[in-house]
Structure formats: structure tokens, C-alpha cells
Amino acid sequence: MAYSGLKDFISELEKNSELQRIKTFADPVLDIAEITDRVTKSGGKALLFENNGTKFSLLINAFGSQKRMSMAISRKSLDDPGSDFISLFDHMTSGSGNLFNKLSSLPELIKISAFLPSRIRRKGTCQQVIIMKPDLSIFPVLKCWPHDGGRFVTLPMVHTVHPVTGRTNVGMYRMQVLDSKTTAMHWQRHKTGANHFEEWKKTGKKMPVTVTLGGDPVYTYAATAPLPENIDEYILAGFLRKKKIRLVKCITNDLYVPCDADIVIEGFVDPYEEMFLEGPFGDHTGFYSLADRYPKFHVTCITHSFNAVYPATIVGIPPMEDKWLTKATEKIFLAPLKLALQPEIQDFHMPDAGNAHNLVVVKINKSYPGQGRKVINSLFGAGQIMFTKYLAVISGDVDIRNYRELIVYILNNTDFQSDLIFSSGPLDVLDHSSDNFSFGGKLGIDGTVKMNEELLVKNQKPDDKDLPPEGAMDFAIKALSDNGIIFAQVTGLPIIAAGVDQAGDPDSFQNIERSLAEGATGKQQGLILVVDHNVPADDLAMVAWQILANTDPGRDISLLPGGKLLVDGTIKAFSKLPFPRKWPNVVCSSTETMNKIDSEWDSLGLGPFIASPSRKNSRLNYGDGDEVTRKSH
Q: Is the pLDDT of residue 170 over 90?
């Protein structure tokens, strides 16, 4: 179904027992984020904070489960839209190129045209209230984490237009509120909004920008989707909800926005105005994105519906609400990925620990030697996949979402000496591990089943008795008595996670090499994953997140004698070699906020007590600030 504003979606969530109303006062400054972090990580419901100091209720964690994400895109299952795309592409590309086959695709094209956005002349429900003297303080804008630079609008749909081509874009770029009429606009250098901004610089004119909040939740997903630059996000939204999006002209500029949006914030960006030092901000990487310069957005008008609800999200150490947006993308964009890039692709997956861009696993139907490498080389230059830091390609009968099965499969089909493809290229601007901003090392892993032509030394496939045992990926904790390093070994797998304290002992990393390189993982090739001593080595998800976030593959991976791969996932602020950039701290709530919510929990009506994830995660922090320094140890 299509929803007319968030009120409709909230009603549907409530009918399906997917919503919790909170009537007790909750402060948008830090408290709501701390409550939401507990509920989100425990798999809880969407939250509607009705008492937040403003007249607008605040909806958060609305996408935080597979069921709610499916409801948000108006489908019974996340598989549904992907199946629709596959059926459409198969129909349009099947058969020969004769006239009959071309004509047979017309009904499908006509069906798509029914979902194209249309413009209406009258005012929309989003303009039932018009405020010509705008004041952003009327909204319950969140300050999420203690070292954030201020309050941030976290689910804005930012509408821009190219000044020459007239092509529009809807992106999601966080907005730090500077005063009642001004925000910063965090469109990163690789985003379409930033591209439009550069083009407006050439015109000498102010750039019109309009931000919408709420409306049908499918709009929010479409704004995050990895669409090609010239594809209208509202075409995707209409296709998903199976109903065209009706757009209405803004009051103070010529941009068009959905008539059923909850809130509309109109304004402009002056390309010649001095940039603002925006941030820090506790980001989806689980680390603070440190302060950097971005343009200012000046508000000229605010409109909203009579029943407007303010939507928000928080991001931080995974898993968070945004993981379900990523899972929707996996399902929806498989068919276009196959059609546009690689027909051999069968599936792809972005694990939670990789924060979408740090790790992508791709499964292919392999039919010739070198095909795994071909897919790696192609995907490293494809759309938003170009930001991927680690890309693993596999083939054969394996479930890429069963991590034990996947790791076993990759280890059995990857020769560390010949199947690792190191390169460099663009990285997400939020990546903090590379020596250079938004540019660094990448690693492609060809974990496909090798054909005879690809084998340097022909090896027999391992017998079943040589494979690791079935079951959970358990850890057996052990200690190395010779140097006091604590490490954990994955039961039945040649993988060791070890913790070192480089700030306390500058030689600790070298001790790892001496102690573990010889024989620690057995005679076979294996992985030695080194993290900081305060990372729980027996928590594989935490180790994986730290390794993926804190490494530059070209700098931090080395092949040791015996075919063992050493991966340095430690904080580089404490390494012997100087690191040229600032290193961010991990995102956690303050002790004061955690204690406050602990004491107020029973009054919130959220059921049994949920401990703060930040209690455990705060051990990863160095000092009290957004940045790690040697002094903070």
C-alpha cells in the first residue's frame, strides 16, 4: 500500500504491533538516542516519542526490522521488489531483437510509465501550514552522541537541481542546525548534491535547495538507494509503492517535492559564502566523523501538514537501524546489477560489520578461468560499489550469509599468494583508516573455485575430514605466557584474533609477529587478526568491525612465512610509524546519560530493562573526546 504521510505508516505499524508510544518526556538532546540505541540493538519496535518538548511527535527506528522495512517499501517481503525487477528485465531483454519481441515489452514499459512522478498545480497536504518566518527550533532535532558538534537532522531528503540540464536529485545528507534559520549541508564530494553545488558555482547564482521530512517512508529509502546520477529517485519510489508520486511546487523556490511529505524546509545555498566547520558527528561507521568544512543552507520557508510527524534515526556501532536499508538494497538492486554490469552475478551481500562500504561479498556463476578477477576489476569501478574496501567474490554452492560456511569456503578456495588482488582507489569520505582523505588501498579476494588454468600448483579439494566442524563459530580463549598477549582462536578454523597495547608497549605488535607467525594456526595458511587490547577478541562481530574499519589493505596486510596473513586492525594513532591524519574515537553515550536512562527506564513503558550497549563499547574509547590522541591513552 501507499502511505499518505507518516501518520498512515504509524497506524499500520500499530496494527501490526510494531510501534511503541512513549508518553513520558524524553529529551532530544542525548536521551532519545540512548533509549533508541538500546531498543534498536535488542531488536525492538519503532518508537514514537510523543512528549519531547515540541508539538511534533518524533518517530525513530521505523525501519529497524525486516518486517518494518518491507512495510516501508509497501511490500510483504524484501524479496518482492527484487523479483519484480528480475521479471521486468527478463521480459524486456529475452528473445531476439525482432519487432515482435520489442513490441511485447511495451506493456511492461507502459506499466512503468504509470509510476512516473507527476506535478500538480494545487497546494499539497505538506503545505497545510505555511511559516514564512521560519524557526527550526520548533522541531525535536536530535543531538545523538556526546561529542557531536550540535543537533543534527538525520533523515533529511535533500532536493537539488542541476542548473544546466535541469535534472533533479534527492539525496540524504545530514544537516547540523546552526541557528533558527541555518544549517550546514553535509553533501560529500562524491555525492550528486555536491556535483550540483559545483555547477551552481559557475552560474554566480544562489542554489535552490529544499529538504523534506517524512511522507511515505518509501521516499526515505529511495533517497538512500544507490541509483545512477540521472535516475529520478521518485521513479524508484513509484515503482516500489506501485503508485505514482505526486509532486507540488515549493513556495519560495521552483523545486518540486512530494505533496504528502510531513515537513518541507525550503531555502538556498550560496556557493560563494564561506564554508562552515561542520561536525563532529557520531556516524554510521561507529566512529565520529571529524569536523570538516561544508556549505551553509539558509531556510526561507517551512511548511508542514496538520498531522506532521518528525522522523529521525541514529547511527553508530553496528548493528543499527540503517542495516535494514542496506538489506533492502541487496534485494532490490541485484537484478539491475546483473543487467548493467555482470550477468554472472547470482547474489551479493554487505555484512553489518562492514558498514555497507567496507565489505561486499559477491556470488557468481563461474564458467571460465579468471572470471572472479574480472568481476572484481569491474565492480571496483561501478557506481557506489567503487567505495568498497574489501570485495570477496565466490562461486559454487555456499550461503554467503552464513559466515562460518562462507569463511570456510573462502579459505579452502583462496591461495593468499595468488588470489589476493591489491589495488587503490576512491574510498568513502568517512573512512578514517587511509593515509589520504577519501583515497586508499583496496583488496579483492578471488575465493571462487579454481579451474586448472588458474592453479599455480594443482591441489586436490580437501576431504570432508579436513574441513572445520559444523556448528557455531565458537572461540577458545587462550593466553600467550611469553609476552602476556591475550588472543582467541576460532574453534576448528585457522583464525586467531589477538589484542595488543601499542600505546603501552610500542613493541607489542612485533611480539605478535614473533609469537604467532610460526605454527599458531597450524601448518595450513591462516588469518591472524590483530586489534587493540581493549577489543574483546572473543567477539567475532566486534573484531570484524574493527578490522574492516581500521585497515588500509595496501598498508596493513602482510603475508608471513608459512602462508599466514597478518592483518593489522589496530588504531594507527599509536603505531610506531606516524599517521598523517586525525584518528576518530568510537561512538558511545556518556556515563551521565547512561545512568540517567537507567534510572528513568521503568517510567518509559518499554518493558524489561535493556542495558546500554555503550556500557560495553565505551572500553574502546581513548579519552573523553571525538579524537584519539597519544595523550588520551
A: yes
Give the CATH number of the domain where residue 578 resides: 3.40.1670
CA distance 604 to 497: 40
Q: What b-and-e string marks burial along 36-47, b requiring 16 or more CB atoms within 10 Å of the CB?
A: bbbbbbeebbbb
| Dihedral sign from CA coordinates of 102, 106, 112, 115 | positive
The β-bridge partners of 292 are 278
Residues 500, 414 within the same domain: no
Q: What is the mean pLDDT of the chain?
A: 87
Q: How many CA atoms lie within 13 A of 385 on its CB side?
A: 24
pLDDT in tens, 494-546: 888 888 888 777 777 777 766 665 555 455 678 889 999 899 888 889 999 99
Whether residues 275 and 245 fall in one domain: yes
Residue 445: which domain range? 341-466
| Whole-angstrom distance, CA of residue 247 vs CA of residue 401 | 39
Q: Taking residues 467-481, what's their average pLDDT?
A: 44
Three-state SS at 486:
strand
| Claim to verify: residue 282 and residue 149 sit in the same structural domain | yes
Same domain, 268 and 358: no
Over residues 245-258, the mean pLDDT reads 97
Cα–Cα distance for residue pair 105/622, rounded to 1 Å: 60
Q: Based on the domain organization, do 399 and 548 belong to the same domain?
A: no
Give residue 81's pLDDT.
66
- Give the ranges where 259-384 is alpha helix by DSSP (H): 322-332, 334-340, 371-379
**pLDDT at 457 exceeding the cut of 50:** no
Residue 52 forms part of a structural domain: no
CATH number where 397 lies: 3.40.1670.10
Same domain, 414 and 527: no
The set of catalytic residues is 283
For 29, residues 6+ apart whose C-beta sits below 8 A from its C-beta are: 142, 143, 151
Residue 409 lies in a domain: yes
Grid coordinates of 212: 523534506
Pairing of strands 359-364, 390-395: parallel
Q: Which of 270, 291, 311 is the last residue before a domain boundary?
A: 311
The residue among 383 and 438 whose pLDDT is bigger is: 438
Amino acid symbol at 277: L
Q: What is the DSSP letter of 504?
A: T
Count CB atoms within 10 A of the CB of residue 595. 12
Q: Rounded to an integer, what distance in angstroms lies between the CA atom of residue 417 and that of residue 561?
A: 11
What's the number of domains the chain is made of? Answer: 3
Other C-beta atoms lying within 10 Å of the C-beta of residue 132 = 10
Report the pLDDT value the prediction gives residue 516, as an integer from 0 to 100: 61
Quick check: helix, strand or coil at residue 346?
A: strand
Residues 139 and 206 occupy one common structural domain: yes
pLDDT(169) > 70: yes
CA angle 35, 38, 42 (to 5 degrees): 145
How are beta strands 129-131 and 256-258 bridged, if at all? unpaired
Q: Is the residue at 3 inside a domain?
A: no
Is residue 423 assigned to a domain? yes
Phi-psi region of 392 (alpha: psi -120 to 50; beta: other; left: phi over 0): beta
For residue 230, give the DSSP letter.
T
Sequence-distant (≥ 6) Cβ neighbours of residue 346 within 8 angstroms: 363, 364, 365
Query: What mean pLDDT is predicted for residues 190-196?
Result: 87
Asked if residues 225 and 333 have their Cβ atoms less than 8 Å apart, the reply is yes
